[in-house]
Amino acid sequence: MVSSTRRTTSSLSATTAAAIAAAAAALMVSVAFATAQYTPAAPGAAAAGAAAGATPAAPYTPATPGAAGAAPSVPAGPLDIAQLGAKGDGTSDSTAFVLQAWKNACNATGTQKIVIPPGNYLTGALNLKGPCTSSIILRLDGNLLGTGDLNAYKTNWIEVEHVDNFAINGHGIIDGQGPLVWTHNQCNKNYNCKILPNSLVIDFSTNVTVRGITLKNSKFFHLNIYESKNVVIDKVTITSPGDSPNTDGIHVGDSTNITISSTTIAAGDDCISIGPGTKMVRVNGVRCGPGHGISVGSLGRYKDEKDVEDITVTNCTIKGTTNGLRIKSYEDSKSQLRATKFLYDGITMDNVSYPIIIDQKYCPNNICSASGTSKVAVTDIVFKNIVGTSATPEAVTLNCANNLPCQGIQLHNVDLKYAGQGNTTLSVCKNVAGKSSNVAKELACV
Ligand SMILES: *[C@@H]1O[C@H](CO)[C@@H](O)[C@H](O)[C@H]1NC(C)=O
Ligand SMILES: *[C@@H]1O[C@H](CO)[C@@H](O)[C@H](O)[C@H]1NC(C)=O
Ligand SMILES: *[C@@H]1O[C@H](CO)[C@@H](O)[C@H](O)[C@H]1NC(C)=O
Ligand SMILES: *[C@@H]1O[C@H](CO)[C@@H](O)[C@H](O)[C@H]1NC(C)=O
Ligand SMILES: *[C@@H]1O[C@H](CO)[C@@H](O)[C@H](O)[C@H]1NC(C)=O
């Protein structure tokens, strides 16, 4: 039972890694394409603002960090998509109206607010590109629905790219309508599978807030943060069935200073996954489940991966997931990197299959050689105040490589009971050094 559960977990996670890589590759293509398509603001936009008497002459200049402080100009056209002609009837195509509102806001100055009013607005790909001369707030009072027509997307659904000082807020829903297309996901059968669109992607952006909204039934990942800085995800709800394919809640890669707080995530894959090149992540007050838990990794799959450093996960509840707190790296890693300075503090587990798991020998079928020479160093990882129940007896798994043992692993006040009957929890540990305090001896393997 145990090994079959773990195999299932491994193969799903392998597809996720492949998915991320493919998505990243696809992203490069889309960025190149986007750059070719990007047309700078027509001088008319600024002129229109000036003509309306809003601001003193505001000639078009590329966005600067100072944009946030600039006086607001009158945009060249409406920012409310209903005023632009969108119909919230759930079936009319609203794509062009959202893109027009974006263009109007992006080419203005100061803070500009785009409004999605109550209603259900169906769209295809929404490439919300910067740089913008304004700071934009996207107010979501209504719902955005991603069409089930896959031809309407190049890669992702809503893609915010090169946009600084941007916020999405409101109580509306970003509904990926995944059930219409999940059967097209072949990632459990084909390693080089076609990736379905991620719902909300934030790329190459600084100072971004996503607050209050719900992301539902994404076709692939719900929220993907890549090459971005100073991002806050607060009071967000992410919801999709536990058996929906690759519907990770939030994935973060190559990014710095990311806060995820007071957020509830039910997903078919990792609730939160943190990829290579990510530093300063603060996760607090997250409820996760169903799903595959809060993961760092997979690390070492590709060349030139950067360290993962300074991650804290505090005050979270994880319920009914396959893993709880997981760090995984490939046994035959292609890059040399470090996973270091992580603190997990104040986590309640409720019937989680593998509550604490470091797997430095991650090697799903057919994609690595299991050579046993890990190059991903796992050091200085603290698990503190981790309580609750485990769905399998194996509550603590620290499976490290003999050529590069895990160092500085600490367990303090870890109290995990078996949720089933006729057994007790235990730890399974290899090649690990560190210390523990206030942990029952069956779990205290360091
Ligand atoms: C991000 O916000 C900080 C603090 O408000 C500001 O100093 C900085 O210029 C902003 N960065 C960009 C790229 O706009
Ligand atoms: C991290 O991001 C938050 C929110 O944008 C910001 O207030 C804070 O100043 C940033 N910290 C650093 C060290 O950049
Ligand atoms: C713990 O998380 C809850 C949300 O789940 C939040 O309301 C509360 O403020 C958090 N407590 C601390 C001390 O951060
Ligand atoms: C715990 O989870 C397992 C599946 O992982 C399930 O079979 C079992 O009923 C759950 N137990 C409780 C007490 O919820
Ligand atoms: C308890 O669980 C361990 C680990 O899964 C297993 O090896 C052992 O046989 C179990 N003991 C009983 C009495 O079921």
From TrEMBL:
SUPFAM superfamilies: Pectin lyase-like. It comes from the Eukaryota. The keyword Heme does not apply. Its main location: secreted. It is found in: Secreted, Cell wall. Signal peptide: none annotated. One of its GO terms (molecular function) is polygalacturonase activity. Gene3D superfamilies: Single-stranded right-handed beta-helix, Pectin lyase-like. The active site is at H292. Transmembrane segments: none annotated. SMART domains: PbH1 (SM00710). GO terms for biological process: carbohydrate metabolic process; cell wall organization. The keyword Hydrolase applies. Keywords: Cell wall, Cell wall biogenesis/degradation, Glycosidase, Hydrolase, Secreted. Its EC number is 3.2.1.67. It holds the Pfam family Glyco_hydro_28. It catalyses: [(1->4)-alpha-D-galacturonosyl](n) + H2O = alpha-D-galacturonate + [(1->4)-alpha-D-galacturonosyl](n-1). Belongs to the glycosyl hydrolase 28 family. This is Exopolygalacturonase. It comes from Oryza glaberrima (African rice).
